[in-house]
Amino acid sequence: MFVHNKQLQYTVRVATPNPGLANLMLEQFGGAQGELAAAMRYFTQGLAEDDAGRKDLLMDIATEELSHLEIIGSIIGMLNKGAKGQMAEGVEEEADLYRSLTDNGNDSHITSLLYGGGTPLINSGGVPWTSAYIDTIGEPTADLRSNIAAEARAKIVYERLINVTDDPGIKDALIFLMTREIAHQKSFEKALHSIQPNFPQGKLPGKAEYANIYYDLSQGEENIRGPWNEGAEWQFVDHPQPAVDGGDGRATVQLADRDFQVVQQMASRTLSNPLSNPVTGADLGSDIANQQHH
Amino acid sequence: MFVHNKQLQYTVRVATPNPGLANLMLEQFGGAQGELAAAMRYFTQGLAEDDAGRKDLLMDIATEELSHLEIIGSIIGMLNKGAKGQMAEGVEEEADLYRSLTDNGNDSHITSLLYGGGTPLINSGGVPWTSAYIDTIGEPTADLRSNIAAEARAKIVYERLINVTDDPGIKDALIFLMTREIAHQKSFEKALHSIQPNFPQGKLPGKAEYANIYYDLSQGEENIRGPWNEGAEWQFVDHPQPAVDGGDGRATVQLADRDFQVVQQMASRTLSNPLSNPVTGADLGSDIANQQHH
Amino acid sequence: MFVHNKQLQYTVRVATPNPGLANLMLEQFGGAQGELAAAMRYFTQGLAEDDAGRKDLLMDIATEELSHLEIIGSIIGMLNKGAKGQMAEGVEEEADLYRSLTDNGNDSHITSLLYGGGTPLINSGGVPWTSAYIDTIGEPTADLRSNIAAEARAKIVYERLINVTDDPGIKDALIFLMTREIAHQKSFEKALHSIQPNFPQGKLPGKAEYANIYYDLSQGEENIRGPWNEGAEWQFVDHPQPAVDGGDGRATVQLADRDFQVVQQMASRTLSNPLSNPVTGADLGSDIANQQHH
Amino acid sequence: MFVHNKQLQYTVRVATPNPGLANLMLEQFGGAQGELAAAMRYFTQGLAEDDAGRKDLLMDIATEELSHLEIIGSIIGMLNKGAKGQMAEGVEEEADLYRSLTDNGNDSHITSLLYGGGTPLINSGGVPWTSAYIDTIGEPTADLRSNIAAEARAKIVYERLINVTDDPGIKDALIFLMTREIAHQKSFEKALHSIQPNFPQGKLPGKAEYANIYYDLSQGEENIRGPWNEGAEWQFVDHPQPAVDGGDGRATVQLADRDFQVVQQMASRTLSNPLSNPVTGADLGSDIANQQHH
Amino acid sequence: MFVHNKQLQYTVRVATPNPGLANLMLEQFGGAQGELAAAMRYFTQGLAEDDAGRKDLLMDIATEELSHLEIIGSIIGMLNKGAKGQMAEGVEEEADLYRSLTDNGNDSHITSLLYGGGTPLINSGGVPWTSAYIDTIGEPTADLRSNIAAEARAKIVYERLINVTDDPGIKDALIFLMTREIAHQKSFEKALHSIQPNFPQGKLPGKAEYANIYYDLSQGEENIRGPWNEGAEWQFVDHPQPAVDGGDGRATVQLADRDFQVVQQMASRTLSNPLSNPVTGADLGSDIANQQHH
Amino acid sequence: MFVHNKQLQYTVRVATPNPGLANLMLEQFGGAQGELAAAMRYFTQGLAEDDAGRKDLLMDIATEELSHLEIIGSIIGMLNKGAKGQMAEGVEEEADLYRSLTDNGNDSHITSLLYGGGTPLINSGGVPWTSAYIDTIGEPTADLRSNIAAEARAKIVYERLINVTDDPGIKDALIFLMTREIAHQKSFEKALHSIQPNFPQGKLPGKAEYANIYYDLSQGEENIRGPWNEGAEWQFVDHPQPAVDGGDGRATVQLADRDFQVVQQMASRTLSNPLSNPVTGADLGSDIANQQHH
């Protein structure tokens, strides 16, 4: 069960409203790497996790991400103060209104003010949040790797947001949020390492003869190699050929008996026509047919 | 530039058509962890990558994933052989047609036969592929972590698909594909480690006082801890409080002068009414208003 | 700030796993009327709400809906117990596996097991959750009406889910959840009525001459009227005509000077051709052109 | 059956082309609260409605909303006059073209000109229209509540659009459209009240012990109450506890016999390995494993 | 302006309810090739069309497609008669309810009954309708080609639907709808041919040296040629090479002065650090870093 | 199998970075008419095509479109050079950064830099690519018509992009790409004509009595006719009436016996109530009910 405290996890101090900046901040509210995505990622994993320790970890961090969602949403709300009213009131001349609304930032926020009035769950480009952003697969070591990567990406977006504002209060809150992503990333790394072995994830091992091959499929003059394809453990295939299994490289199906019969039926029978006055291309579309034939 | 070879990278042998199974295979064709997602993930990263070695790595694997997309698509095409014709022809009784089409698997494939006729870029539930599945962020170490996780997830989906079929030819091809994901995952791990330091990714460090804290936000009787929140490097906060910055935990904005004026204007002025015969709730909606007031 | 308690708001007792039923329950987890939609609807409204009382109301209910999301997700997790493992292991014959997975319910859940392994944020048809489900507009009386309607719809979906299961523990939890929707609906009704006047919502009144008209635009023999279009307050227009404003019913634009010049320029000038060897339909596509002309 | 009249329901007079403004108007063409959403909402309800009077009401208003869609689309078309041609022709210098196109409004319309050339079914932020905007549930009193709310929201968006333009002809047409939403809202209110009882909607009543409780889940210093949670009819729960049913607040499943056997099987058996040369994390990923273990 | 007639354009006679079949019919209601897509395709083109004759053509057919949407929606409504009530009432045993609902067809319709109760704007797989299905580009000859293709596809889907039902009344109505698509396709062909020249569409001609080349990019043993790449008008390139422009086949940018300065700045300066206590990978993530370095 | 060559098919020369222009170019990278849509359209058709010649054609062109995707993506990458770094570094003052980023073009690219860092698969408005753009239906003559139309649309978008830039190197590459669309369109035309008859596509002919009718459903003063509805082959219906089949224009279902029983059951029985303390609108919502009744 969740409980809410009216105080934010981190105090939000905004120097001055700035709807253009509000819009950029939406990236971490309703964007792909945003706090809702993070919260729902860990929450859904936590629900399905059987291990009590990891379940607890996931619920702890899911709850914190919800609290972060509240912080970033509060920043957006403060940055939009006034702008919402201006749009509702039309207190200025048309040109002035646009200028005041589009100052400093991209202008998708006009859309967000038009239809949401403040803090809609969209990204900075106006795209609605979708759970397609969440890549939970239901296998702990795969999911922990996904979580590590998700925290890494979120850290980068916060870094970019910190760089597009001069407001010290916002910068301060964003640095807190960014730092927490680093801490979460570290927790997930630790949790992954605590499961041994964790590679390859899942139950089926790979097939040995294909597991150490590197296919050099992008060809040309320069061929800069690195630890990802050179050294004793790699078999580097210079000019990869198709049909590595030794087959003919085709896709074939051995038709079952029943299907052969269907095919034969099709060849021999006349379609029992469901139409009273059949019209064919020959008479109906003669004009077009003629144009297109010769 | 891409070039195509009419032979597949791996020979596809399907024992017998099975449209229900075809549908499940769509998960790796047009699904979130499927081969298009993989190919486009690495291809878009490769386009923006400045490092020649990593660019090459990304293009090599992107190209292989396109070749895998072709393999899995060919399996689906073979499994649908006959079924497409049956739907087009209506050669059987209605009930028989359904039975033959829904045998062994979930029946979303009827939709795919209805509107796509074979190999649409949808997942096994019929959902169209979206680039929202791709989480490229444009920072190498974050993206490599995303790639490692993506390969881990794809490996799991292949494992599940291997488990839902008895067809030896399909099993064989899927094991090849699964093994290649393992190899790719290993390459991306190596590439990540070759960048040092790689944590935290990006340019801004975190703020020290929040970087080692673990907030125990999910509370209750059991509290099972692990390396993700215990040990010297962690500061475990038992009952986290709001406003960790020492502020008041509120969101406030210091209104700029201009905005104060706007607010005052709003208070004092009368809206220059753009309507000829203004109608208010009082007269227009009196009936409803009455119903709702008392 | 949010805090989580490891105990659920309502105890979940599932008699036996049933992945088909789990899938139907997804409708209230990741569906349009589900608990995430409810929680995010009130949470985003609460963030932007200036009135302290209504902000509190919205946050109270948003928090409860998150707790409901956890309940319904826990039911789904329990119903999928075993099924997830079976898909991962392939312990049964292919046909048996399908039978056990598709028993009692629709089979989109195979997809959810394939790619999510348990509790993905999708609806019962496999469609990812989208914030397009949330219709917050940022005006309190409009939003409260939206909330009343949303609770009404959620109540109906719970009713349908209660009717598709015989499991007493699930029925019991669903009745709790359904009842809470009724309570929330009542709270939102009260909050709407506490704002007076609340109709028409917003600041601009309507134009009197069009506010009481009912246009009978669907015509035919039967014309059953009711309080929505009959009585003293309605002006019933039997055969509505276009151009009710008395104009000509056309769309016209009075081109500004600058645009007239552009049009004249277009007529007189020769396009400065950016191509070295221009190819036109006449020579390039002669074959097709001929086919298509006569 | 529908019939179309070439005259618009309301005459559209546009003073001067303004592609930026055209773009904002898209909100009511292809946006969430726009006229297509309205028309399809009532049309789909009308198709499924059994009551002849309400069916007629729904079809009357659906038809009017289609006529409104035509009005707003015509405004957009007029506002884009010239701009479409300029983009097609490239008659100006690059910088001038941008300036002329982005004047007065947000610039997503460049996208709409690029790919749609005028009146695409997108919102003012470029997001394609989706039927996820329509929340019809198939129960009359719930749907009528949804309709009341939808009209309330649409009224607000029209109000905002009226405020962002100075063009008197456009203002005039928008006021007509806004007023009609008010009239429709009133009709739907009347229709809802004509069904008695209408609360709670559906067939199942709620469970008495949970129907009048208000859970104060958002806690903190201020606690401003109102008619939504105070008074004789409410039971206000100050510090809500989990497991309100008196259970243990856990999610449990009583595994059926068959599943117990599966679990036992899993524990005892050796997976019949489908691979010829199994490769495990131990040998394949030894390098990575080592890095990750210690 | 639109007007509606309560009679359908074509009488709908359904022999017996069949919710599974209803679901398949959704493909032409809310699917990619369905009647809403058709109606909106022509309607949006008509709004932006300047030529009075073609505008009329587009509005005539748009209006007919709306009437078809009503026909197919009515079929779906009739096929769902009873099923909606059964789900609402739970009048049968759980297993019986499922059996009765899933009989004859795919079972996504359970979802549509759950959340829509009858005729939602989704395809037969449950995917919400999106205007991404509409490919209007705002150039008459391109759009007419799109319309011809759209009618061709719709004709095929109707053909498949006719083949999956034995109900004579439904078959009859579907054949009417299918035939009308043929008629529309013919009208659009005629309209396209009436614009001369119509190839290449638009204003810019192609560049002669690349307009008649056929690149044989898919290579292998078999090379079956046809009129699409053989004959005097084609220049068949057997082994296509990159950089056909004679350049170096690389992507380069000549950095403007300002950017060079930025790059130099980056190299020389020290980031003015916005953090009080900077934490780097070296101290913060030392544990992880160590694990990952060696 | 695919192979990649590190050289592009066409050399990309960009004069100077311009992130605003980069954003517009996204339309052909991740937009509806872009190169990914083209490549996937032909690739999926090729996989399912049985005719060896057409399969080869489709794979040849699919492969070329992938090479075009690489060209357009490389242009975008070059245009974003520097901008990505500026956002990551925050080297300029806030206002300067915005100005430099939003210069010349629409500003959705700030979003693409924020979350993608360069070349995300989105359109110029920031909308993620979706396979809903692909309209493959699995019938060769319908699909070839779709391909012809798709090439026609892509040609127009390239034309518009050529017109919005003055950069000679970009113009040059775009003209190459545009010309190749013309060549592909011609190939698909030839392939369509090589299948005879090709109209109407599919197997079922239309019904003669409805195939030559033109319904004049958009009525009003002007009625400009053309070859699409006049001449001997058309039967022009001036004032179309409903129920063209001679029926009653209603939708009816002949309820099967079983359903009649269900209806009777509903009427007579008392719902076996699953609730312990049933609460109805009468007591629970009395307050609201009262407000709404009178």
UniProtKB/TrEMBL annotation, chains A, B, C, D, E, F:
Cofactor note: Binds 1 Ca(2+) ion per subunit.
An annotated Gene Ontology molecular function: metal ion binding
Cofactor: Ca(2+); Mn(2+)
Biased composition (Polar residues): 269-279
InterPro entries: Ferritin-like (IPR012347), Ferritin-like_SF (IPR009078), Mn_catalase (IPR007760), Mn_catalase_dom (IPR039377)
Location of region: Disordered: 269-294
Residue sites binding Ca(2+) per the record: 56, 60, 218, 220
Amino acids binding Mn(2+): 35, 65, 68, 151, 184
Keyword Calcium: yes
Alphabetic keyword roster: Calcium, Manganese, Metal-binding
The keyword Metal-binding is annotated on this UniProt entry: yes
Alphabetical list of Pfam families matching this protein: Mn_catalase
Family to which the UniProt record says this protein belongs: Belongs to the manganese catalase family.
Protein name, per record: Mn-containing catalase
